[in-house]
Amino acid sequence: MSGDDPSELASIAEMDEELSSPHLAEAKQAEKSNNRRAKAREELRKRFMGGLMATREGREWVWDLLSRGHVYSTSYVPGDTTAMAFKEGERNIALYVLSQIPPDAFKVMLEESSEYGS
Question: Which of the two ends of the chain, N or C, has the fewest CB atoms closer than 10 A to its terminal CB?
Fold first, then answer.
């Protein structure tokens, strides 16, 4: 853009007008609202996981879930790519749950794990 062409200047003016339109203000407001909701959901998840991991039963249940999700073992199935893909899907969910566990609660769960039932 050289800035000398009148059609370019008109185009720039139109873009400026679009950017300052009420639609932009609405979009910004919607984005702020979505961000607030996302933060509230994240806080709720943290509180839930903290509550779950605050009890021995909760920690044992999470340990079982992680074990069933192949977090502590391989998901490789020799000669059966479909079964392996299925186990990898389970593992993906278990890894997400693992990522949500507060580090101090994970340490307690790890220390207790030898006492958990099968």
Answer: C
Cα→Cα distances 97→37, 65, 70, 76, 84, Å: 21, 9, 12, 21, 20
Crossing angle between the packed helical segments 22-53 and 6-19, to the nearest 10 degrees: 40
pTM over 0.85: no
Find how far residue 9's CA is from the centre of its chain. Answer: 44
Question: Of the candidates 100, 93, 101, which has an alpha carbon nearest to the alpha carbon of residue 71?
Answer: 93
d(CA 78, CA 67): 20
